[in-house]
Write a structure and sequence with these properties.
By secondary structure, this protein is of the alpha+beta class. Helix content is 24%, strand content 23%. The protein starts with a strand and ends in a 10-residue tail after the last helix.
Length: 370
């Protein structure tokens, strides 16, 4: 299988399967002399790991990360520093239950990658989907924690902003609330309502989709390239690579189609050190290049395909049959996609920072102060 890597100058490669002994990631291109520790990476992994509430899969994985290479002891801080060589991170799988999938090993699960994967490779790991499992996103989050260290002046945050048809009220938006509820939601009132809503979905053996909004603040103007290296294109690609993501929008997104030219174009005024925009329909990106405003991206996650209600499908011998997917599954995979979206934002921005610095220098060519 090819295409297990993402990025250019800051590049990562994930490996491992959902029910294998371990999963991990190799990060290539991380600059040297950056302070790092397992605690920094573990903090991000803890936000994504399963079994933290009744609203996520009850698979009990500690997701404890081990740094295998790419670091050296720092005599001044008694910690670790990156050496500039590949950083290898390992996460052991501790709570696989392969027997949960024995009844469906010869059946294709509707909504999953079983059929398309099997058609492409002629072989598949029916135990949770193997490489196509969302378990693969844990190494991404670990790599994203390292990427944040490359761009420490950039603040990246995300929130669940819609579950099913139920949207948040942006008048209640408060970043401080994100870690105060099991949904990573910035609207505490919406989070309260979602508890009963998702309980009902879960008890009925079904699932529901969600929308996540990711915001990066502190990105200077100039990151990205106008043709085939668009920052917007790489961000869209990164978010679409997340399991179960079906659409991505930046700034006004699809709503831009209903705006007039006067409404959509972000007007500019002269600031103390640099121009500023009076609105942000562009989502912080113009012509594929960051403009200094907050980068705003949203992505939609489909309902979990593994549900307890019986569905029609076929066997690997092309015979009609029925299927019920047993096991431990998220009633809304969008919840744990919040830290994953943050990680992918960090990974793309770290890559573009290094690409920008390599072409025009750290501060860019023109030199407006941030």
């Amino acid at each position: 299988m090819s295409f297990n890597s993402f990025g250019h100058l800051f590049r990562f490669t994930t490996w491992g399967e959902s029910h294998g002994p371990a999963i991990g990631v190799v990060i290539d291109g991380c600059p040297p002399n950056i302070e790092i520790s397992p605690k920094i990476i573990q903090a991000e992994l803890n936000r994504r790991k399963p079994g933290q509430s009744r609203f996520t899969t009850q698979r009990q994985e500690p997701d404890e990360v081990k740094i295998l290479s790419g670091v050296f002891e720092d005599e001044n801080t008694e910690g670790l520093r990156t050496t500039g060589t590949p950083i290898s991170l390992l996460i052991e799988n501790k709570d696989q239950r392969s027997k949960d999938y024995s009844d469906i090993k010869d059946k294709y699960r509707p909504g999953h990658a079983d059929y398309s994967y099997h058609q492409k490779y002629g072989i598949r790991d029916y135990r949770g989907g193997g490489r196509s499992s969302a378990r693969e996103t844990a190494p991404r989050v670990a790599a994203g924690a390292v990427a944040r260290l490359v761009i420490p002046d950039v603040k990246i945050r995300a929130s669940l902003v819609q579950m099913g048809k139920h949207k948040i009220d942006y008048n209640n938006f408060d970043w401080e609330e994100v870690n105060n509820n099991p949904f990573f939601c910035a609207d505490k009132e919406a989070a309260k309502k979602w508890e009963n809503y998702l309980d009902g979905i879960r008890k009925n053996g079904s699932s529901i989709g969600a929308i996540i909004e990711v915001v990066a603040e502190g990105v200077p103007a100039g990151w990205g390239a106008p043709i085939y290296g668009k920052l917007s294109a790489d961000l869209a690609s990164a978010m679409m690579s997340i399991n179960a993501v079906k659409s991505v929008e930046i700034g006004a997104g699809i709503d831009a189609a209903s705006l007039s030219g006067e409404e959509n174009a972000d007007e500019m005024r002269a600031g103390e050190n640099a121009p500023y925009f009076t609105s942000n329909h562009s989502g912080g990106i113009l012509g594929g290049i960051s403009n200094g405003d907050a980068i705003v991206i949203r992505f939609a996650v489909k309902p979990t395909s593994s549900i307890l209600n019986e569905r029609d499908t076929v066997t690997t011998d092309n015979e009609n049959t029925k299927i019920i997917t047993k096991g431990r599954h998220d009633p809304c995979v969008g919840i744990r996609a919040v830290p994953i979206g943050e990680a992918m934002m960090a990974l793309v921005l770290a890559d573009h920072f290094l690409r920008h610095r390599g072409q025009v220098g750290r501060d860019g060519a023109f030199g407006f102060e941030k």
